[in-house]
Give the backbone structure.
Amino acid sequence: MASHGLYSAAKGQRDMNAALELIDDLVTEETIKKLQTLGQQAGVKPKLIAPAAQIDESNNALAVGYANWLAHELDWEVDESVFQMKDFSKDRLDHWVRIAHRSTFYGEIDKKTPYVIVDDVITLGGTLADLRSFIVGKGGRVIGMSTIASREGSDVQIRLDVDTQTKLEKQYGGDLAKFCDQHLGFHYRGFTRPEAARVLSCSGYVHLGEKIMRGRNTGNASRGKKQAAR
C-alpha cells in the first residue's frame, strides 16, 4: 500500500479522492465476500466504523475512505459519531509507544446495530482492539474487523489465543496481571496477539518495564512537540 502512487496524498494530505482510488486498486473481492457473509450471519446490515479523528486533527483519509468505500460496495451505513483522540501520531514511532499509549475515543454508539470496525493498516492491532473495547463498553456489539492492508500481507489474528496467554503466564509467572495493571492500566489478557509477542520478546520484568517506560516517554515527547506547534 505504501508504494502506491496515491498513498502520500491519501495518507498525508487527506485527499479523499486519492484514498478511494487507492482502495479500489487494493481491496480484493475475497474481502467483500467475507464481509457480506458477516452481514448475512448477523441477520441485519451492520454499521461500519473507523478510528477516525476530527478533520483538523488528522491528514489521513484512508480509514474513513475505506469505511465509505465499503458502505458503497455493501450498502451498509457508516457511523460518523465516534472520534479518536489524536493528541499525537503513532505512525512513525516504535511499537512500544503503541503499547504504552492506548487509543481513546469519544462519542455515542448505536446499541441496536452490530459494528464492523475498519482501518487502513493493522500493525499490532491495538487501535482496533481499543475501539472495540470502547464500543462494547458503551453497550454495543462488534462482529468483525477489516483493514486495507497488513504488514504481513495477509489476515492477522489479533485476539489473544490460549497458547500465547499460556506462554505469557509461564514466562512471567503470577505477578503479570498486577504488573500490567500498574504500568498499563489493564490486564494482560487485554493484549492483542501481536502485542503479546513483543512482551514475550523481553527477558523479564525489568526489560519489559524499560520498554514500556521508553515507549511512554517517546509518546509524551511527541505529544509535547505537537502541542508546542499549535
Summary: The chain has two domains: 7-150, 162-229. Residues 131 and 137 are 10 Å apart (CA to CA).
